[in-house]
Design a protein that fits this description.
The chain is mostly beta strands and about 450 residues long. Helix content is about 0%, strand content about 50%.
């Protein structure tokens, strides 16, 4: 029997932390369907935008791009043009003595022999077995103008230099980067972690689209920061992570659609963070312990009416959001579905959860919906405290709806928590409901603790 209990209080309540169990629900898991019939400008072949099977948590909301000028309206300086010619030698336009370019088949190797001038590379055309590699410790711009590059033996684009690369997806263009399952001839001392690899920061802008396919490892890999301000990036296939950055990941706008076997988005270093302040993320992962958004540092989703995060993870032990630090949800609309069960692979067993974190959880606005439907899957599992002061929270879990190892405080907002088999709310400290906080719990057997 399921028991529902609603509480709306203006007085503080200090409550013991025990709960009960129960419920049943089912939803289809969102999957990506790529339409390969679309053709980009100037010969680049790409998908038609990463179409999705719009089952919950996915929908078409939030896919807003700010229109940017076409190439002629950008008034670029220090321009080098590279046009791939579908199996023939690329056509290069380069008027700069400080920049040397070597060609081997469809493979282009650029060496920038100055640390002072920022060059802008305009890429177009199609290469069925080619690549672009850039050496040089200088800032650079890449303007993707309907380019399609497939490299069966390594990254499609490989930037060997620690300075920032600005990647502009030109208005109205569709672009494609793809690799193969086996890399070869990677020079000693160089890294080639993904289809699009950069040692320096990658900053994406523009109002075109980029599709990335990764058969070997990560789709986009950065040994520094990743940032997107505008444009659409579609990771239609990733053998490992969709976006993998050593340092900070910032989503300020644009659209990210990711289908990966590994993590959809991962920040590797504990001193960095994942910050989402705008745009849309739609991510689905299928591997064991493969998470939607994961960071060794904090994960922050800031207040924005245009922020949409939709995550579906199906692998055993997978989490929608995983942080080894704290998580702040300050706004936006976040929807998470997990359908995997417990992973018992030694040495680290792991249970699926909508959100798992090692420190404190703070919810101060927006909408959070979690459906953890797999066996023993939890809704929220925090090793620290949880505080909810505003927003709408809706959790439906097979196991504990909210497992809080510290204290739980609800001082505002509307919170609904349901467990089908265990505790709607289970915490090791105290529960406190104050002010305008409204809490509804649904347990099996009626042991609500309220």
């Amino acid at each position: 029997m399921l028991f529902a209990f609603a509480i709306t209080l203006g007085l503080a309540m200090f409550l013991s932390c025990s709960s009960g169990s129960g419920g049943d629900d089912s939803d289809g898991r969102g999957t990506w369907g790529v339409n390969n019939s679309g053709n980009s400008n100037n010969g680049g072949n790409s998908s038609n935008g990463g179409d999705i099977n719009l089952q919950w948590p996915f929908d078409s909301s939030g896919e807003i791009l700010q229109q940017t000028p076409e190439l002629e309206g950008l008034n670029l300086q220090n321009v080098i043009k590279i046009e791939y010619k579908s199996g023939n030698a690329p056509v290069i336009t380069n008027a700069f003595s400080e920049v040397s370019i070597n060609l081997t088949g469809e493979n282009v190797v650029v060496r920038i022999n100055t640390s002072e001038t920022e060059y802008n590379f305009v890429l177009s055309g199609a290469a069925s077995n080619g690549s672009l590699k850039i050496y040089g410790d200088v800032r650079k711009g890449l303007y993707l103008n309907g380019v399609s590059i497939t490299n069966s033996t390594g990254p499609a684009i490989n930037i060997q230099g620690g300075k920032r690369a600005f990647v502009h997806l030109l208005n109205g263009t569709q672009n494609l980067l793809a690799d193969g399952p086996n890399y070869s001839n990677i020079p000693s001392g160089e890294q080639a972690k993904g289809t699009f690899f950069s040692e320096g920061k990658l900053l994406f802008d523009g109002s075109g689209s980029l599709e990335v396919k990764a058969k070997k490892n990560h789709a986009i890999a950065v040994d520094n920061d990743f940032e997107i301000r505008n444009g659409k990036i579609i990771v239609s296939e990733a053998a490992n992570d969709g976006i993998h950055a050593n340092d900070m990941i910032e989503v300020k706008g644009g659209v990210l659609k990711i289908a990966s076997t590994g993590d959809a988005i991962q920040s590797e270093n504990g001193y960095s963070a994942v910050k989402i302040t705008g745009g849309k993320i739609a991510a689905t992962t299928t591997g064991k312990k493969s998470h939607g958004i994961t960071s060794e540092g904090p994960i922050i989703i800031k207040d924005s009416a245009n922020t949409v995060v939709q995550i579906s993870v199906s692998g055993n032990g997978s989490k929608g959001i995983l942080s080894r630090n704290y998580v702040d949800l300050l706004g936006g609309k976040v929807s998470i579905k997990t359908s995997g069960t417990r992973d018992i692979t030694p040495p680290d067993t792991s249970t699926a959860a909508g959100i798992k974190l090692a420190a404190d959880l703070s919810i101060k606005g927006g909408e959070l919906t979690i459906k953890s439907l797999g066996d023993k899957a939890k809704g929220i599992n925090t090793d620290g405290n949880a505080t909810i002061s505003a927003g709408n929270v809706n959790i439906d879990a097979d196991d504990d709806g909210m497992k809080v190892h510290g204290n739980l405080k609800i001082e505002g907002g509307t919170v609904y928590v349901k467990s089908r088999k265990k505790n709607a709310i289970d915490c090791d400290g105290k529960k406190e409901v104050t002010g305008s906080g409204k809490l509804t719990v649904v347990d099996k057997g009626g042991a609500s603790g309220f």
